[in-house]
């Protein structure tokens, strides 16, 4: 009943990382190149669930758009736009707030992690975030959502919201979108702590590779990455219980489009004194063209705004009929 359609987003909250690239951007471009209809969104309405400096947000939004384009997302073949420019997101978000349950939001691990013991002090928006994310996806009747591991629970919640809406109104209107969590880089870990995911919001800059880092910085961060003193084993089993080593192997594999087993076979018996510089060279060779293209695009903000404006028109043309139908189903 529903044609295959991909939707995904990234928050323009600054400092896009290698985790965002391998877990999201690189895969977004691959999906586009497979010929599936792809809709990609800079989710600024999500970013403002925590304070954003207005001038910085503007710049970060353009920078995130530049990162998409530099990573291979072609605005002529994918819909690339900024969430706040398509008002149907906020509107469907409200409608779904009235379908989703408080208890469901309370169970979200990202909410618990971000709010910590300070839930009372968080914005209402941060709590409702997964409901707006469900609206982002359902507004396009998207059937697949490529995300990193950390977003799996939110996509599953989106399925629950869609099912409850369909059930409450006796319709078969919203699809149950599938999270696409594929490849070896679905959870890139911090370079300083193998138990934490690499994140743009980590206060330690050394914990992550930023897409805008220069070659020296990338080499230095990999050189200083926390690892154990053992050399690389000759099979994957030898990486069990070695989270940091496994993470670096996964990053190498994802960047080289190899399997982790192939990487381990190539470097069996070598120490990190050899592996880390090789990884840094590989990362620089893949990321340098992206950061160069990003700075080129950032020199022409008007052009980025024009691309995002056109993307918003295309997105709105799909979203409006679905929003109107939702309102009609609900009696409005
Ligand atoms: P962040 O978590 O860095 O703030 P977002 O919430 O905007 O970034 O996530 C954008 C996309 O990047 C999501 O699909 C998310 O799953 C993915 N992602 C974020 N961090 C990582 C990571 N360390 N490894 C793999 N994917 C990630
Ligand atoms: Na995230």
Automatic annotation (TrEMBL):
Residue positions binding ATP: 11-13, 19-20, 148-150, 188, 197-201
Bilayer-crossing regions: none
Biological processes per GO annotation: tryptophanyl-tRNA aminoacylation
Gene3D superfamilies: HUPs, Tyrosyl-Transfer RNA Synthetase
GO cellular component, one term: cytosol
Motif mapping: 'HIGH' region: 12-20
Keywords in alphabetical order: Aminoacyl-tRNA synthetase, ATP-binding, Cytoplasm, Ligase, Nucleotide-binding, Protein biosynthesis
Molecular function terms, GO-annotated: ATP binding; tryptophan-tRNA ligase activity
Reactions that this protein is recorded to catalyse: tRNA(Trp) + L-tryptophan + ATP = L-tryptophyl-tRNA(Trp) + AMP + diphosphate + H(+)
Superkingdom of the source species: Bacteria
Enzyme class: ligase
Protein name: Tryptophan--tRNA ligase
